[in-house]
Design brief:
The protein is α/β, with parallel strands linked by helices. The protein has 7 helices and 8 strands. An 8-stranded mixed sheet has the order 1-7-8-6-5-2-3-4, sandwiched between helices. The two termini are 17 Å apart.
């Protein structure tokens, strides 16, 4: 368990499977039926839950939401809307899960403020986001969108990349999603930052990607680390 004053350099790198298990553990430990919001719907539900739950999905991309419902059919409720503007009653959800969405929102601080409003006392906020201050995040926010599409297609092998309902989407990397800002967000709302871990999912894509990342990091004199690309926050509200 982490103190909110955790030093930023103390960052544990875990595998994707370990990250999923960690998030699932915290949700299952709540030990009761849950109302869960997936804030920005992916194409699949990653967590492995043993507790009963109802899943509400919100997404501004109607094509992605329709595809999710058609292929998985696991949403109890689906809402087409902007996370910064959609109207939801306060204290609606026990868990808010947001996976690789906030980097695509220009005013991510407004979405985070809504999460604080929509969460029940004692609830959990689970956030996955690229680290804007790692070399992967730095390169992404300083490169053109067409290059992101080519990366997804030719490096990650996603043949539908850039088509309606498929990633990538334009990125903004608002400062509100940085490690330091997220720790401040927890302090502001008197939240407990239970876990902060990183993953290095991009390094396995190709040797060329690793070489570019290491070289750019070295040129920055280590200011932008290369050993990870994503962050995961597990945050608990006071009861």
């Amino acid at each position: 368990m982490l103190a909110n004053s955790q030093r930023l350099e103390n960052l544990r790198i875990v595998s994707y499977e370990e990250e999923v298990a960690l998030m699932s553990h915290y949700v299952n430990a709540m030990g009761r039926p849950l109302e869960i919001l997936e804030a920005g719907c992916g194409r699949k539900w990653s967590l492995k839950l043993s507790v009963p739950y109802r899943l509400t999905g919100i997404d501004a991309d109607e094509d992605a939401l329709t595809s999710r419902q058609q292929t998985k059919g696991d949403l109890s409720t689906s809402i087409i809307g902007d996370l910064c503007a959609v109207s939801i009653p306060p204290s609606t959800f026990d868990v808010i899960y947001c996976s690789y969405v906030l980097e695509h929102i220009n005013e991510a601080h407004r979405a985070l403020a809504n999460f604080a409003c929509w969460l029940k006392p004692g609830g959990l906020i689970l956030i996955r986001v690229p680290d804007r201050d790692a070399i992967y995040g730095w390169l992404t926010r300083h490169s053109p969108f067409w290059l992101h599409v080519l990366y997804k297609r030719w490096i990650e092998g996603q043949v539908n990349a850039g088509k309606p309902g498929f990633a990538p989407y334009p990125v903004y990397y608002n400062k509100a999603i940085s490690r330091a800002a997220m720790i401040d967000y927890c302090k502001e709302h008197r939240y407990e930052l239970c876990e902060l871990v990183a993953t290095d999912t991009y390094l396995a894509n190709s040797l060329l990607v690793r070489i570019i990342a290491q070289t750019c990091s070295a040129l920055s004199l280590g200011r932008y680390p290369w050993r990870h690309n994503n962050l995961a926050f597990i945050i608990r509200a006071p009861a």
